Amino acid sequence: MATVADIIAGKSSHVYSISPHQSVLEATHKMNRYRIGSLIVMDNDHIVGILSERDILMRVVQEEMSPRHVKVADAMTRDIIVCRTDTSLEDASAIMMNRRVRHLPVCDDDGKLLGLVSIGDLNAQHVTEQEVTIHHLHDYLYGRV
């Protein structure tokens, strides 16, 4: 059974982050520059939140606030859902679906950030596994085993 560790192993270990003291405008510039949908909010090597596109839309744009003057700490999601490397991909998908999140930080037992898994990562892994299964079934059906 595939785990989150399988996805993390195939990705860069770099996770884009931002300080809670920076502005939402700085965060959006960073998100746009790297073409990403969220930033992990770190304070002294501790995860204190996550800032997603949805957070910015709901807490800044909808409230007609200036992203230049709103701090990341005031717009981020504080209730962070994380998983471990031994979390199965099925469990990670269920967490994302049930909690309606698109990004899942991966931490060790001490809370150290090891990586970030997105819904896109899970979908890509699922497609890869299905392609392998289809290939094996095709070979079996046509006697190429």
How is this fold's topology laid out?
Elements: H1 4-9, E1 17-18, H2 24-34, E2 38-43, E3 46-52, H3 53-61, H4 72-75, H5 89-99, E4 103-107, E5 113-118, H6 119-141
Parallel strand pairs: 1-2
Antiparallel strand pairs: 2-3, 4-5
Question: Your description of this structure?
Answer:
This protein is an alpha+beta fold and 145 residues long. The protein has a single domain, classed as CBS-domain, CATH 3.10.580. The protein has helices at 4-9, 24-34, 53-61, 72-75, 89-99, 119-141; strands spanning 17-18, 38-43, 46-52, 103-107, 113-118. The strands form two sheets. Strands 1-2-3 form a three-stranded mixed β-sheet. A hairpin with a 2-residue loop joins strand 2 and strand 3 (46-52). The longest helix has 23 residues, at 119-141. The relative contact order is 0.18.
